[in-house]
Specification:
The complex is a heterodimer. Chain A is an alpha/beta fold. Helices cover about 50% and strands about 10% of the residues of chain A. Chain A has helices at about 15-35, 50-55, 65-75, 80-85, 95-110, 135-145, 170-195, 200-220, 235-245, 250-270, 295-300, 325-340, 345-350, 355-365, 385-400, 415-440, and strands spanning about 40-45, 60, 125-130, 155, 280-285, 305-310, 370-375, 400-405. Chain A has a four-stranded parallel sheet with strand order 2-1-3-4, sandwiched between helices. In chain A, helix 8 runs antiparallel to helix 9. Chain B is of the alpha/beta class. In chain B, the strands form three sheets. Chain B has a five-stranded mixed sheet. In chain B, strands 9-8-7-10-11 form a five-stranded mixed sheet. Chain B has a two-stranded antiparallel sheet with strand order 1-12. In chain B, strand 7 (about 110-115) and strand 8 form a beta hairpin. Classes of the chains: A alpha/beta, B alpha/beta. The interface of A and B includes residues 401, 430 and 434 of A.
């Protein structure tokens, strides 16, 4: 007798699959492009600041950070991590950087893409486009690749004002001017490197598409405030890269995000949750352990629905870009809006925690969360150092308890699955307790 | 198969009893309380590899001591890391919540509790008997009972004599607080130099206090502080912890039993609440296979 297949507690979005496939195809496209003699760049996530320019110049892009997540998720990262260690790079370095350096060392030694490289691998680049946004490892990582690759490194910078400083007269205008200047220099450099001219009309079109993609993606995530939440963090992570990097053809991504919008809206209308019996509405702090995503299935079986996640990977709060005619200024404004969009709210609440920490507070309230699971990345200071602060503010201001489960995005040796589950059960009891406390104190949830 | 059913009616005012069983990594503990929360019987036995069998045996012995049969126990709460492996339990509750309850029943003013068991160390923040925050050690033996278990072998001592020996120390030696294996190497080096045992043992206790104290400080420690778990029986660690925290640390008469006590008291609360609300006490009919201790007379 055939065993009845157990129904999964997590209800994935159907529209997620084609969107994720569109993202994944970026790797195969880059391999094909290289074979056809077209240029490919390796690009770090730069929050739309530079990638539209590359796309407008018909340069294929692959994303080493995303590739680290892909390798981890399908269990192929360990050999690249080991290779990076053997090359003499520190083990406490960024997991994505270790994966990329190990991969690059192997590709260089072989003289071609490793035959077992996930998704067809990342093909030899003509450019390494680095970004100064948020993360300190990014500068030296791509410089280190110079040991293996004959490709120039270009770093796009981004001002990082604090909550109060961002509101000082002239800071916004000067920051955006600085970014536009950076982008003009990048355009000039790319024209020299590729011998191609920038297609400004195409850049304008791509910019429009990206702004629209982000607006729809933002609206999709707004739907997640509803009970039961129609979309789990797993679907967010599977689809975020078409907006965030932006991986894939923007026109195709736009259509697929629209389809997703319709599906999520339909779920809201019909009260269909992403988790069958939503008992705990959760915030997830930082990037997940890509190598252990099944933990979310196990938690879903206990009624945990992850309804919102770290700010850094979300679309910016929508603003009106119609009056900005220069596409480079529109690109820069969108990136700056992403970085500082929550600062006015933070200032109103006299919270000076900055871009990483404050949104947890606002979102735990607006998404009515019962608890948070924070995943400090032992190899990433930027994504980690604010979590203790966020944990403290959530508990003391909103009576939302949280759990810290240390780990890593790529290195599975740093994450203890069983221990996390053991502590998760304790967190449930605390969430039950604090739910009563919030009710006694007149909170809405 | 012969089975026993334990769903007996409970009337208001009748004699009812509650059991808590804490299946820890090293020891299994049982506490049986009456309707007033008074402890009738308690027992500690080694957990061993066969969790279910040992849990049954410890429970059977505790019932015998209390002169009760299992039928007279209205509700059983299981806790500890092996709690899901106790077939006769009505409900599983985490050891942190149970500890908070048990410790609060003994020390009503407790606000911070530190529990060091065989394989883990925990910090609990407690208000009015409720757990409001916690920290636990990650996957490392340092700062747990296992740290001492491993190192007594190197020292040629028994675990129960460490506390008294450390009181004779004239000088505390610095021992690595981060790794059991490295600490063992350090001890061997001290021993080879003819260092007095009390000084080494006192250093070990300091290492544990340092490791656990640092972890628990994340909770913003407030008095009254209570120390439980098997390691709390060691006066040397109690003193070292007090010194590290700069606070008085209280220890229950039987620090191993607070988890099981809390489990029993939570069982009592759940039962009495259900009775008051006229709801069924047991969520499911409890069945016990004849292989369990309830049929030992047939064996």
């Amino acid at each position: 007798m055939s065993e009845e297949k157990k129904k999964k507690a997590m209800n994935r979005l159907k529209t997620m699959y084609p969107l994720r496939a569109n993202i994944d195809q970026a790797y195969e496209r880059s391999v094909e492009a290289t074979k056809a003699g077209k240029p490919t760049a390796w690009s770090m996530v730069n929050w739309w600041e530079a990638d539209p320019i590359l796309k407008a110049m018909d340069i294929e892009i692959v994303y080493p950070e995303n590739y680290g997540a892909v390798c981890a998720a399908i269990g192929s990262a360990q050999k690249y991590l080991d290779r990076s260690d053997a090359e003499g790079f520190p083990t406490h370095m960024c997991g994505y950087a270790r994966n990329c350096i190990g991969y690059t060392a192997e590709m260089t030694e072989l003289g071609h893409i490793p035959s077992d490289a996930p998704m067809g691998g990342m093909s030899n680049p003509i450019l390494l486009l680095s970004s100064g946004a948020l993360c300190d490892a990014r500068i030296k990582w791509f410089q280190s690749l110079g040991r293996y690759l004959d490709a120039p490194v270009w770093t796009v910078e981004l001002p990082h004002p604090g909550v109060e400083e961002s509101q000082m007269p002239g800071v916004r205008e000067k920051s955006i001017q600085f970014m536009v200047k950076e982008l003009r220099e990048l355009v000039a450099f790319l024209e020299r490197l590729t011998g191609r001219k920038m297609d400004w009309a195409k850049l304008e079109e791509i910019t429009d598409d990206l702004i629209e993609i982000n607006r729809i993606w933002y609206e999709i995530n707004e739907f997640r405030k509803v009970r039961p939440c129609p979309m789990h963090s797993r679907d967010f992570w599977s689809c975020m890269n078409a907006s965030l990097y932006p991986a894939g053809d923007p026109k195709v991504s736009l259509k697929l995000y629209r389809d997703m919008y319709d599906e999520v809206k339909d779920r809201v209308a019909n009260k269909i949750g992403a988790v069958e019996n939503e008992k705990y509405r959760m915030v997830f702090g930082e990037l997940p352990p890509w190598h252990a995503l099944k933990i979310f299935d196990e938690l879903a079986e206990r009624g945990w629905n992850f309804v919102v996640e770290s700010w850094a990977y979300h679309a910016p709060k929508p603003i009106d870009y119609a009056k900005i005619s220069d596409p480079l200024e529109r690109v820069a404004t969108q990136t700056y809006q992403w970085l500082t969009g929550y600062f006015p709210d933070a200032l109103k609440e006299k919270e000076y925690m900055g871009y990483f920490a404050y949104p947890y507070l606002e979102w735990a309230r607006t998404y009515q969360c019962d608890g948070a699971l924070f995943h400090p990345l032992l190899t990433c200071r930027t994504a980690t150092n604010h979590l203790i602060l966020a944990q403290d503010r959530l508990l003391n201001k909103l009576h939302v308890p949280s759990l810290i489960a240390e780990g890593d995005i790529v290195d599975l040796k740093l994450f203890d699955y069983a221990d996390t589950m053991r502590k998760a059960v304790v967190l449930e009891e605390m969430m039950d307790h604090y739910k009563k406390v919030r009710q006694e104190e007149g909170f809405e949830w | 198969m012969h089975e026993v059913f334990r769903d007996h009616p409970i009337r208001e005012g009748s004699l009812i009893y509650f059991a808590g069983i804490d299946l820890g990594s090293t020891m299994t503990k049982v506490v049986i309380v009456d309707r007033d929360g008074k402890t009738l019987s308690s027992l500690v036995g080694p957990t061993g590899a066969e969790h279910r069998r040992l849990a049954n045996k410890v429970m059977a012995d505790a019932l015998m001591r209390a002169d009760l049969s299992f039928d007279q126990v209205s509700y059983v709460v299981a806790t500890g890391y092996g709690r899901i492996n106790i077939p006769f339990a009505d409900r599983q509750i985490t050891e942190l919540t149970c500890h908070a309850k048990g410790i609060s029943s003994l020390f009503p003013g407790v606000r911070t509790a530190i529990d060091i068991g065989g394989q883990d160390a925990k910090g609990l923040k407690i208000r009015n008997g409720k757990l409001i925050d916690f920290v636990m050690n990650d996957r490392c033996a340092a700062g747990t009972g296992r740290f001492l278990d491993v190192l007594v072998g190197t020292l040629g001592l028994r675990i129960d004599e460490l506390g008294e020996i450390s009181l004779r120390a004239t000088h505390k030696l610095p021992i690595s607080s981060t790794c059991t294996v490295f600490a063992q190497m350090e001890i061997m080096a001290w021993l080879s130099q003819g260092t007095p045992l009390p000084d080494i043992v006192a250093g070990l206790h300091d290492a544990i206090a340092n490791r656990v104290g640092k972890m628990v400080k994340k909770l913003k420690i407030e008095p009254e502080v209570v120390f439980t778990g098997g390691v709390a029986k060691n006066i040397g660690v109690v003193n070292a912890l007090q010194e590290y925290l700069g606070l008085k640390v209280s220890v229950p008469a039987e620090p191993l039993l607070t988890g099981a006590l809390g489990a029993a008291l939570l069982g009592k609360e759940l039962t009495l609440k259900a009775m008051a609300e006229g709801k069924p006490i047991h969520e499911k009919e409890l069945r016990l296979a004849e292989s369990t201790f309830f049929h030992t007379e047939n064996h």
